[in-house]
Amino acid sequence: MRVLIFWDIYGRVWRNAFKKHFLDIKNKYNPDFTIVNPENISSWRWPVMKHIKEIDSLWIDVYTSGNHIYDNYNDIKDYLDAPNSKLIRPANFYESEHVYFPGKWYKILEKDGKKLLVINLMSSTFLRDEMYNAFLKVDEMLKGMNLDEFNWIIIDFHRETTSEIYAMSMFLEGKVSFVYGTHTHIQTNDELILPGWTWLLTDVWMNGPLYSVIWADFEGIKSRFLSWVLTWKIDQALWKDYVVSACVVDIDEKTRKCLNIEKIRIRGSL
Ligand SMILES: [Fe+2]
Question: 154 vs 40, which has greater pLDDT?
């Protein structure tokens, strides 16, 4: 079974560069499922529905997300709660009788009688102090599920630090097929299979402007690095030069073991 995963689709670039390459990549690798994290699809704020609808015209099975999931709360909440919504949100918000968080934290995909479970988590470290501990939450969740029901389990762990991907992968070693990180928009060359057969990959980059700081134009955010001043006029970097990145994961459907990971990196100019 083959899964194609795109990290962090950013701003206007996806509408141009991503669309330009998506079908070629899909046709070349012929995946069974496609996962996309479009949390920045409407630039640096979480997408508005018109962009979700626009990307939905492509062949994508599930959207994961992260810290911007509720930035356009009123616009997105109904779709998050829709019965067949493809969009999932991090599992470990502090849910209580006082606060309701729209959306599901997982998506089950089925094909030919085989099931893929996709889970979304988010760290509290340098991101959202108010998140419930992601390790404890996923442990609670998996203990409440019949894991034998699934042929593959994949986790998008939205976080800032590299160590958390390794820690989470080892925490879930032998239970899930693949743990990968989103949010940092930095390519890592560390795809690794643990002795207990779980694979990890810290980050595969983004689909966004190539000459940028994560995605932002340097001049617009320079003051953040040179002083304490926060510049709220953050501009997208020029998007003529772009990077499109993804990875292809092959998973044994009988053993749940991840067999191979191939990173895709395309740099181009519009
Ligand atoms: Fe993020």
Answer: 154
How far does residue 253's CA lie from ligand 1's centre (Å)? Answer: 31
CA of 260 to the centre of ligand 1 (A): 26
Residue 75: closest CA among 109, 104, 52: 52
Phi (first) and psi of residue 185, to 5 degrees: 60, 35
CATH number of the domain to which 95 belongs: 3.60.21.10
Number of domains the chain contains: 1
Question: What is the spatial distance between Cα 270 and Cα 29, in angstroms, rounded to a whole number?
Answer: 24
pLDDT(260) > 80? yes
Q: pTM to 2 decimals?
A: 0.94
**Which residues form the domain of 117?**
2-269
pLDDT digits (tens, 9 = 90+) for 57-69: 888 999 999 999 9
Active-site annotation, residues: 68
Structure tokens at 62: 């599930």
